[in-house]
Design a protein that fits this description.
- The structure is a single chain.
- By secondary structure, this protein is α+β, with helices and mostly antiparallel strands.
- The protein has one domain (3-176): Nucleoside Triphosphate Pyrophosphohydrolase (Alpha-Beta Complex), CATH 3.90.79.
- The protein is built from three helices and six strands, in the order αβββαβββα.
- The protein is globular and about 50 Å long.
């Protein structure tokens, strides 16, 4: 178990219960093309080997779209990026194995619903940033994803499918007009 992460999560748990919506989370899938391949922005929790999507909880008085935009800007430094909702995820126990060493009543171990949003942005317009829970944030090729936490690989695959569908639709529609 990573003691620094464990201590931080336990410290944050009680505060989170007061300020965030229970059981609601936003995951941001940020795609960037580097001129050769499509990449996705990933992060790692402190001392953890698996990668995950940048995400965060929704404040009790915050709009979900605003929450996603804030998470995106915090992790990338980019502004005015259009985020599209992809899917919603809510399988039982989807978050537990990421926090198996934690007490059952810790905020981060509860069951939560994740609303995934994705964006396609210029690779060079993004400056990946860590937050207090992470020690790495970087681009990874979508066709060579590293080991992922929870169901984040599935979230990326679904967002990629949505991106392809949306681009195909928009390009086809534009050629008709």
């Amino acid at each position: 178990m990573n003691n620094a992460l464990y201590k931080l999560i336990l410290e944050e748990s009680e505060k989170n219960k007061l300020i965030y919506l229970p059981s609601v989370f936003v995951d941001c899938v940020v795609f960037g093309f580097d001129g050769e391949k499509l990449n996705v922005l990933l992060t790692k929790l402190i001392g953890q080997p698996e990668w995950m999507l940048p995400g965060g909880y929704v404040l009790k008085d915050e709009d979900i779209k605003a929450s996603a935009t804030g998470i995106f800007e915090e992790r990338t430094g980019a502004q005015n990026i259009f985020l599209t909702q992809s899917k919603t995820y809510g399988a039982p126990h989807r978050s537990e194995f990421g926090f198996y060493d934690f007490p059952d009543d810790v905020w981060h171990k509860q069951r939560y619903i994740s609303i995934a949003r994705y964006a396609l942005t210029r690779y060079d317009a993004v400056n990946p940033r860590i937050d207090k829970f992470s020690d790495d944030c970087d681009w990874q090729p979508v066709d060579q994803l590293p080991k992922m936490m929870m169901d984040h690989k599935c979230i990326i695959e679904d967002a990629l499918e949505s991106l392809r569908r949306d681009l195909n639709y928009k390009c086809s529609f534009k050629s008709l007009t």
